[in-house]
Amino acid sequence: MSENRLVRVLQRFEDGLLVSILLSMLSLAFAQIVMRNLFNSGMVWSEPLIKILVLWTALLGAMVATRNHNHINIDVLSRFLPPRLHTAQQRLIHAISGIVCMLLAWESLRFVVLEWEEENIAFASVPAWIPELILPIGFFSMAMRYLLHSLHPHKRPVT
Amino acid sequence: MITTLILILMALLGVPLFVVIVSAAIVGFYQAEIDLVAVIIEFYRLAEMPILLAIPLFSFAGYLLSESQAPKRLVAFTEAFLGWAPGGLAMVSILACALLTALTGASGVTIVALGALLYPAMAQAGYKENFNLGLITSAGSLGLLFAPALPLILYAIIAQQLNVGGKPFTLDDMFLAGILPGLLMIVMLVIWSYWKNRHQARTSFSWDKAREAMWQAKWELPLPFIILGGIYSGYFAISEAAAVTALYVLLIEVFVLKEITLKRLPDITRDSMILVGGILIILGVSLASTNVLIDGGIPNKIFAVISAHVTDKLTFLTLLLLFLLLLGAILDIFSALVLMVPLLLPIAIGYGIDPVHFGIIFLATMQLGYFTPPVGMNLFIASYRFNKPVMQLYQATLPFFFILLLSVLIITYWPALSLGLSGR
């Protein structure tokens, strides 16, 4: 499998996961309303599950935003920089972001290990550390993308 | 001090804001000799706020609506009822933009979705180019004071997290508080549009056209009632209203009207979730940085400095307005909320300002920021969309800027406008 193909498969996987999470949140939230109003009951595990899905949405959305250069930033400077400086600026900001995200990935990993040691439960009998794995995975993936962008800065989009 | 300067420099250089904010938190925890895993523990509080579910669901619904033919029907509908008056099409633009922004949560989608319909229609009806451009660009951020716009929800979440005293309030209070100030902005723009175009020929109102437009929009017409009725009556919690809205929009646009094919659904969903990821990650890291701010007693220190010089509420409000206008010109509304509310709200409360009123002032001023030169987001979106130089847009939006600025002044110095409906 070529490198490009691998990247595309990964991207499709991210997108697919994001879509399924949104649809799950939607169905769970709706099911909760129906259960509450018609049967006067609820599913104990659905609320913690929804909260975790929101966390997953945050990280997966942020991962895709990193991929597409869609993170919120103050975009004043890059509009006025000449091309060579623009490239240097892109390298710098992506390197900074990459390093910071790497640090976050490391601290997330420590967080997950702590939770594993404490044997916390997320919902039903799922241990908390399993859904929390999205934290190190998400930050690590963002770190890698930023470092790659830093090595291969993209050209200024034509507007 | 030097750290703060470096952080500001990073932000101005264009480093994503979540990286800047989390760096601030990391430095703060490091200096306080707290284990850096605390940054993640704070971030993880994202998973402890059930209300956040509303953000992805409303964004999803908004993106679906804007990608379907709903904007077209919305324009046809308002035109059938208002198009006959002088300046009628301008009023159509104002109302349509406000409704769509409230539904899509103020993300720049409005100009993209409605601009393509309104701009040519207004040009054809003989509106001057600069009036046309200025109106659509400035109306593109109108409506973010109406439920269920995301900035309103986000403000309530952040303020409640802070727990800084002041009179406690709920999200419902925010929703009620936004109604009259939002209407004031609309009314002032409508009056201006009428005045500028009062000599325009009027067409006659046609019942047939109105009936036809209503029939076309029959599936979307219940939406405002579901959302607003559900929320304002208290029947639905906000995240439940979001779920019902998202499900309803999904069903009608994909399965009933079939304007969005199942094939396009994943792409639209992903695009809406990119926005959500961007907002939530900023919110998450700001939970950590806010913690640093409050542990360091920063808001109290700033309050001490300011209150030594500014003694009365009115002077403070004026300074606040100036500061927010400057801020809005460089920061987008979401980052401004997570960064500045934790800092400013305790100070405002110190001056006896109601937290609900403060929220409305904050959002109304930030709304101006969308088209304040040099970097208001909507200026660039409109420039790109209508293929006009940004300089022309600076000029075109200027009269609208002053009108909305006037409305912001009224909103700021007349608290009852924001607080009257919720009886605070």
Number of strands of chain B: 0
What's the end-to-end separation of chain A, in Å?
35 Å
**Coarse shape of chain A:** elongated
Residue fraction in strands of chain A: under 5%
Distance between the terminal alpha carbons of chain B, to the nearest Å?
40 Å
Radius of gyration of CA atoms of chain A, rounded to a whole number: 20 Å
Oligomeric composition of the shown chains: heterodimer
Which parts of chain A are unreliable, with pLDDT below 50 for 5 consecutive residues or more?
A: none
Instruction: Give the class of chain A from helix and strand content and strand pairing.
Output: mainly alpha
Summarize the helix and strand pattern of chain B as letters: HHHHHHHHHHHHHHHHHHHHH
Quick structural summary:
The complex is a heterodimer of chains A (159) and B (424). Chain A has 159 residues and is mainly alpha-helical. Chain A contains six helices and two strands.
Describe this structure as you would to a colleague:
- The complex is a heterodimer of chains A (159) and B (424).
- Chain A has a two-stranded antiparallel ribbon with strand order 1-2.
- Chain A has helices spanning 3-39, 46-67, 77-80, 83-118, 129-132, 134-151, and strands spanning 121-123, 126-127.
- By secondary structure, chain A is mainly alpha-helical.
- Chain A has six helices and two strands.
- The longest helix of chain A is centred in the N-terminal third of the chain and has 37 residues, at 3-39.
- Chain B is mainly alpha-helical.
- Helices cover 75% and strands 0% of the residues of chain B.
- Chain B has 21 helices and no strands.
- The longest helix of chain B is centred in the middle third of the chain and has 31 residues, at 265-295.
- Chain B is globular and about 70 Å long.
- Chains A and B meet through helix 1, helix 2 and helix 4 of A and helix 1, helix 2, helix 3, helix 4 and helix 13 of B.
